[in-house]
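Bench notes, afternoon.
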Amino acid sequence: MDDNNDIDVFTSPVAHVGALSVRRALPQRGRRTIGAWCFADHMGPADVDETSGLEVGPHPHIGLHTVTWLTDGQALHRDSLGSEQVITAGELNLMTAGHGIAHAEEATGHYRGTLQGIQLWIAQDDTSRHGPSAFAHHDDLPRVDVGEGRLTVLVGDFHNVSSPALAESDLSGAELRLHGRCPLALNPAYEYGVIVLEGLIQLKGRDLGPGTMGYLRPGHDSVEVTSRSPSTVIILGGVPLTTPLFMWWNFVARSRQEIDDAFDSWMSRDDRFAPVSTSLSRVDTSPPWWRTPPST
């Protein structure tokens, strides 16, 4: 992380999800959340074919909304509600975990080419995180031209434009494609993260490229993003959380006991997480670190 008082710049470490490498902008050391946004994986660009590339077998979630947005390519979503949805570039999947859901992410069986996008998690609050799970697909999100850029509003409100996707928290998320100057109106109550997927932008006097995230503290009512070449960025904003999150593996909770209960349900295959109709093998993991006896 670099700090020049106006902006913090974070470098996203590389992680692996299924067969793909991803750049993990959130969470990382020094910045765990941006509002209720608690996870951001930039996947690709990667070459995929009809049967391989995105191969993430059934795995469980609790206490979060999973937001999937592709900038290139196609992928197939399946979940324990029985949902089966191909998502293509420019479309949004939003899955609500609530008390428990399982899903898989697969090759489509027909698409060959480049895959790129971002998967985001939103921490659910106490009004919904113990409630039912759900899935929604949005193939027509609102867009607005701003300066020499075009905003697509993914979740919440941005530039007086509202997304139809469910937003339970006070937050917003948008894609910005630009080539030139783009003045953006911000909510001064929000903190913001600007994640670069493609190109090279300048934000508050700092150059940001793929694999970096610029962080703005609350108090900004506007900011200008500029680019000398075509660039794509994701902008996440929200009111800073006042309640600490407890995250482990694919679970977002408020205590270790909640994590333990979800892990035990997944491993025992009880009815909390229904099966997913897929040929991929389910994903298991070792118990949480606090349940592992220290070595002697």
